[in-house]
Amino acid sequence: MRKSITIRNKAVPIWLLxxxxxxxxxxxxxxxxxxxxxxxxxxIVEETVPADxxxxxxxxFACTKPLTSIDxxxxxxGDYKCVTIYLKNTGxxxxxxxxxxxxxxxxxxxxxxxxxxxxxxxISLEVPISIADDASAGSYSVTVTLKFVA
Length: 150
What we know:
By secondary structure, the protein is mainly β. Helices cover 12% and strands 39% of the residues.
Protein backbone atom coordinates (compact mmCIF):
# COMPACT_ATOMS: atom_id res chain seq x y z
CA MET A 1 0.00 0.00 0.00
CA ARG A 2 1.47 3.35 -1.06
CA LYS A 3 1.20 6.25 1.28
CA SER A 4 -0.08 9.59 0.07
CA ILE A 5 -0.87 13.09 1.33
CA THR A 6 -3.98 15.00 0.41
CA ILE A 7 -3.35 18.46 -1.09
CA ARG A 8 -6.36 20.45 -2.27
CA ASN A 9 -8.55 17.37 -2.15
CA LYS A 10 -6.15 15.32 -4.32
CA ALA A 11 -3.98 12.43 -3.19
CA VAL A 12 -0.30 13.08 -3.90
CA PRO A 13 2.13 10.16 -3.48
CA ILE A 14 4.82 10.80 -0.90
CA TRP A 15 7.54 9.74 -3.39
CA LEU A 16 6.46 12.64 -5.68
CA LEU A 17 6.81 15.12 -2.82
CA UNK A 18 10.29 13.72 -2.16
CA UNK A 19 11.23 14.27 -5.84
CA UNK A 20 9.92 17.85 -5.69
CA UNK A 21 11.85 18.50 -2.48
CA UNK A 22 15.02 16.96 -3.99
CA UNK A 23 14.75 19.09 -7.14
CA UNK A 24 14.34 22.20 -5.00
CA UNK A 25 17.52 21.25 -3.14
CA UNK A 26 19.40 20.75 -6.43
CA UNK A 27 18.28 24.19 -7.60
CA UNK A 28 19.70 25.75 -4.45
CA UNK A 29 23.01 23.94 -4.90
CA UNK A 30 23.36 24.99 -8.54
CA UNK A 31 22.69 28.62 -7.58
CA UNK A 32 25.66 28.70 -5.14
CA UNK A 33 29.10 29.88 -6.27
CA UNK A 34 31.37 27.00 -7.22
CA UNK A 35 34.67 28.81 -7.65
CA UNK A 36 36.61 31.17 -5.43
CA UNK A 37 39.73 33.08 -6.34
CA UNK A 38 42.00 34.60 -3.70
CA UNK A 39 44.63 37.05 -4.91
CA UNK A 40 47.44 37.91 -2.51
CA UNK A 41 48.85 41.43 -2.51
CA UNK A 42 50.86 43.97 -0.57
CA UNK A 43 50.39 47.57 0.49
CA ILE A 44 52.66 50.18 2.02
CA VAL A 45 50.97 52.51 4.50
CA GLU A 46 52.77 55.82 4.89
CA GLU A 47 53.04 57.56 8.22
CA THR A 48 50.78 60.58 8.65
CA VAL A 49 52.81 63.77 8.63
CA PRO A 50 52.68 65.35 12.09
CA ALA A 51 50.81 68.65 11.90
CA ASP A 52 48.24 70.76 13.65
CA UNK A 53 44.97 69.76 11.93
CA UNK A 54 42.08 72.18 12.51
CA UNK A 55 38.96 72.86 10.50
CA UNK A 56 36.32 75.51 11.08
CA UNK A 57 32.78 75.32 9.68
CA UNK A 58 30.85 78.26 8.21
CA UNK A 59 27.50 79.09 6.62
CA UNK A 60 29.12 81.22 3.89
CA PHE A 61 32.14 80.97 1.57
CA ALA A 62 33.56 84.24 2.95
CA CYS A 63 33.74 82.53 6.37
CA THR A 64 32.00 85.37 8.19
CA LYS A 65 29.16 83.32 9.76
CA PRO A 66 30.35 80.40 11.93
CA LEU A 67 28.04 77.37 11.62
CA THR A 68 26.77 76.14 14.97
CA SER A 69 23.80 74.06 13.74
CA ILE A 70 22.14 73.06 10.47
CA ASP A 71 18.42 73.61 9.84
CA UNK A 72 17.38 71.06 7.22
CA UNK A 73 13.87 72.54 7.14
CA UNK A 74 10.67 70.56 6.71
CA UNK A 75 10.80 67.22 4.95
CA UNK A 76 8.53 64.24 4.30
CA UNK A 77 9.15 60.51 4.82
CA GLY A 78 11.44 59.24 2.04
CA ASP A 79 12.83 62.71 1.21
CA TYR A 80 16.52 63.33 0.49
CA LYS A 81 18.29 66.66 0.28
CA CYS A 82 21.69 68.30 0.71
CA VAL A 83 22.71 71.49 2.50
CA THR A 84 25.95 73.24 1.55
CA ILE A 85 28.41 74.11 4.29
CA TYR A 86 31.85 75.69 4.01
CA LEU A 87 35.02 74.38 5.64
CA LYS A 88 38.18 76.38 6.28
CA ASN A 89 41.48 74.64 6.99
CA THR A 90 42.91 76.70 9.85
CA GLY A 91 45.64 74.20 10.72
CA UNK A 92 49.06 73.74 9.16
CA UNK A 93 48.57 70.32 7.53
CA UNK A 94 46.92 69.26 4.26
CA UNK A 95 43.78 67.12 4.44
CA UNK A 96 43.12 64.63 1.63
CA UNK A 97 39.74 63.09 2.45
CA UNK A 98 36.60 64.19 4.27
CA UNK A 99 34.27 61.48 5.52
CA UNK A 100 30.74 62.47 6.46
CA UNK A 101 27.81 60.79 8.15
CA UNK A 102 24.35 62.19 8.79
CA UNK A 103 21.86 60.40 11.04
CA UNK A 104 18.21 61.37 11.31
CA UNK A 105 15.04 59.38 12.04
CA UNK A 106 17.14 56.23 12.41
CA UNK A 107 18.41 56.54 8.82
CA UNK A 108 22.14 57.07 8.12
CA UNK A 109 23.69 58.63 5.01
CA UNK A 110 27.46 58.41 4.72
CA UNK A 111 30.13 59.03 2.13
CA UNK A 112 33.37 60.81 1.48
CA UNK A 113 34.95 63.51 -0.65
CA UNK A 114 38.54 63.35 -1.91
CA UNK A 115 40.16 66.76 -1.53
CA UNK A 116 43.51 68.55 -1.54
CA UNK A 117 42.55 70.81 1.36
CA UNK A 118 45.60 72.92 2.13
CA UNK A 119 46.06 75.29 5.08
CA UNK A 120 44.08 78.49 4.51
CA UNK A 121 41.82 76.93 1.85
CA UNK A 122 38.03 77.14 1.95
CA ILE A 123 35.94 74.41 0.33
CA SER A 124 32.25 73.60 0.12
CA LEU A 125 30.74 70.32 1.25
CA GLU A 126 27.26 69.01 0.46
CA VAL A 127 25.86 67.51 3.66
CA PRO A 128 23.11 64.98 2.80
CA ILE A 129 20.10 63.98 4.84
CA SER A 130 17.64 61.19 4.12
CA ILE A 131 14.39 60.70 6.00
CA ALA A 132 13.31 57.10 6.61
CA ASP A 133 10.28 55.99 4.59
CA ASP A 134 8.46 55.01 7.78
CA ALA A 135 9.33 58.12 9.82
CA SER A 136 6.46 59.51 11.88
CA ALA A 137 5.59 63.21 11.84
CA GLY A 138 7.51 65.22 14.43
CA SER A 139 10.67 67.13 15.15
CA TYR A 140 13.91 65.13 15.07
CA SER A 141 17.51 65.70 16.08
CA VAL A 142 20.07 65.35 13.32
CA THR A 143 23.67 64.34 13.92
CA VAL A 144 26.29 65.33 11.34
CA THR A 145 29.75 63.83 11.85
CA LEU A 146 32.76 64.96 9.80
CA LYS A 147 36.09 63.11 9.87
CA PHE A 148 39.21 64.41 8.18
CA VAL A 149 42.00 62.20 6.81
CA ALA A 150 45.52 63.57 6.31
